[in-house]
């Protein structure tokens, strides 16, 4: 059944490109301030799914992101992919945690809504907390379906397959609803060059975080972030025939509990 006038929101994050994250070998502190930023990978899947829902059911897609000035870069990318509107919640207060981000998104969704479907990536690629989508749902008082690997719309309901690792669960909820998606849900499109050029000229609405009527007191304090130190035992097997060297290697792995007999 075709849904009349679907309004869809997708919340995206400018995250650390963890594939380029380096650690100071002396202090083991990650070099966050020199690490490039990009749209969180799974948010790109959420964005693609929002566009596919619009293509099937009509309506409009609004992309929303919380962050500093550079967060506009991911919104420009979202525009190039095909969203209709973009809203930048400018972080003008400094460090924020998942609580503040959720409060800001929920308030903005109230102001700019109503939306029938609100999409998130299941988690961000840099923090992996998986908190923001469910926190926003709680704040708005609407259903939340997590870890969706497929979505369909039937009248006023959304039906989703949830990936629970050892099983698949099919659930449905009445709209409005929040859905967090997995990487497996789709393959995001690549915007054409002409779309990228046009996106640079499209307006982006900006709201200051400090001016939103939300609780700006963080609930989480990060004490430290340290890289993992890998200490090797330095065991070297040499000067043995190949068959005996293999036996020695296997015996060492068995003693360490890496493999079992």
Structure in a nutshell:
With 261 residues, this protein is of the alpha/beta class. The chain has six helices and eleven strands.
Molecular structure report:
By secondary structure, the chain is an alpha/beta fold. It has helices at residues 41-57, 72-81, 98-112, 132-140, 193-199, 242-255, and strands at residues 7-11, 14-16, 37-39, 60-67, 85-90, 117-121, 144-154, 157-163, 168-174, 177-181, 205-208. The strands form two sheets. It has a nine-stranded mixed sheet with strand order 9-8-7-10-6-1-4-5-11, sandwiched between helices. It has a two-stranded antiparallel sheet with strand order 2-3. Helix 2 packs across helix 5 and helix 3 crosses helix 4. The model has no long low-confidence stretch (mean pLDDT 90).
What keywords describe this structure?
261 residues, alpha/beta, nine-stranded mixed β-sheet, 11 strands, globular
Q: Briefly note the structural class of the backbone.
A: alpha/beta
Low-confidence stretches: none
Distance between the termini: 58 Å
Mean pLDDT: 90
Helical content (DSSP H or I, runs of 4+): 25-40%
- Strands side by side in the biggest sheet: 9-8-7-10-6-1-4-5-11
Which outline best applies? globular
For the biggest sheet, the summary is:
9 strands, mixed
Q: Beta-strand percentage?
A: 15-25%
Rounded to an integer, what's the Rg over CA atoms?
A: 23 Å
Q: Count of DSSP E strands?
A: 11
H/E element order: EEEHEHEHEHEEEEHEH
* Total of DSSP H or I helical runs spanning 4+ residues: 6
